[in-house]
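Entry 12.
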Amino acid sequence: MARAVRRYFCRAGLLAAALLLVLTLVPPAAFAFSLPGRRPSPASPATPALGRSSQQEVAPPLAVQQLQEALETRRPRVEIVSPADGALLPAGPWTLRLRVEDWPLVDAGPLGLGPHLVVQLDGDDPLPLTATSTTMRPLEPGSHRLTVYAARPWGEAVKDPGAQRQIRLHRVAANPLGQPAPSSPQLIAVSPRGTAAGTPLLLDWLLLEAPLQNLRSGDASWRLRVSINGDSFLVDRQTPLWLEGWRTGSNAVQLDLLDGLGEPLNPPFNSLVGEVILEPGGEPPRWQMGRLTASEMAILLGEAPPPAAPEPVAEPEPEQAAESDGTLEPEATALSAPEQPQDPQPEPLPPPAMADGAAGPDSDPGLPDLAEDPAAQGRPPATAPEPPTPPDQPMADGLAASDRAAAGREDAGPEDSPGSQDLAALDGGVTP
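Predicted 3D structure (C-alpha cells):
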C-alpha cells in the first residue's frame, strides 16, 4: 500500500513539473488563440499593447444589407486568361485579359460601382474594373504578384473558392526571393483606403493560401493583428468588420499576420500599412446613404441601365440669349437693327448752258445762240455732251465749265461782243 501511494505521488510530481515547464516556455499568447472573436493583442516588444481599442464594431449600412441579400446566391469564378502564370513580359505597358462567371460587372454611373473586379499588382492601390480587359503599367525588372478578385459594390472581397486568382510575372529575369514562397499564406489589404466622407468604414482583407482553422477548439494556426491609430486587437476569422470611431483626418491602419505562437508569419510580405483620410462634409457613396429603392437596386445589380449623366449646358452669349427668348434689349436692338436707308440724293442739276448748247437762266436773251449752228461760228461740230458730274464733286464741275468757257472765247475771237464775255464769266467764273 505504501508503495502504491509513493508511486502515485511520484507520477503527480512529474506531471506538475511538466506542466510548470510548459507554462514557463510557452508564451501566454499561445493560450489565447482558442478564444473566438476579437481581443486586445498581447504585449510585445515591437507593438506594445495600448489598452482597449477605440473602434466599435457596428452593423453594416442598410443598403449594404440589401445588396448582400441580393448577391447571396452568386458564386463568382475568376480566371486570368493572359498573361500566363510565370510569363516573362517585355518592357512597356501590357494587356491583362480576364474571364468571370456568375458575377455581373456593373458601372452604375451616379450610383457608383455595382459588382466588379479588383486587380492588385504587388503593393499598388487596388484597380477596380467593370470590364474583362485593361492595360497595365510597365513592370520593373524582377518578379511580381498579380492578384484578381471579385468584389461587392462597397469594395468587400468575395471569399468563396474560385473568386480570386493570383499569378507570378517577371521582367528581364525572375527573382523568386523577392516574392513570398509559393503556397505560403499571403495577406492582401482590401479596405479601407483613400478618402472617406462618412462612417462606418469597412475593414476587410484577403488571405490567400491560409490553412483552415477553428475546425475544433484550440485549432488556430494564424491570427490577424489590426492596429488603428495605435490601438490593436486580434482577429482569427476572415470576417469583414464595419467600424466606427475613426478620427477626422489621417488614420493609420496596420495589418500583421501572425502564426500560432504570435510571431510574424512569412515576413515581411504580410505586414501592411495603409492610410484612410476621413473628410466629413463630402458626398458619401450611395450604399452609405440609407435604404435603396427598387430602381436603384436594379441599376446596381445590372438589371437596368444606369441613368444618363446630365450634359453640361454652356451659357449663351448675351445676344444669343436675347434671340433665343424672342426679345431684344433696347441696346441690343439698336446695335443689331439693319441700317436705315438714307434720304435720297437730289437729282443732279443739268449741265450749264454752254455744255448743252442752250443759254443759262441768267444769260442775256439778246445774245445769239452760238451752239445753234457750229459751222456758222467757224468751229468744228461739237462732240457728244459729257455726262453729268455727280453733285458731290463741285470742283470738277467748275473746272469743266471754265474750260468750256475758255474754249468759247478762243472760238469767238476779238470781235465777240461784251455780252459774250459776261456769259463766259457767268459760266466759268473767268474774266477775259
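Annotation: Helices lie at 2-25, 62-70, 294-300, 318-325, 330-336, 353-356, 394-412, 418-428. Residues 26-51, 327-340, 353-378, 391-432 have pLDDT under 50 and may be disordered.
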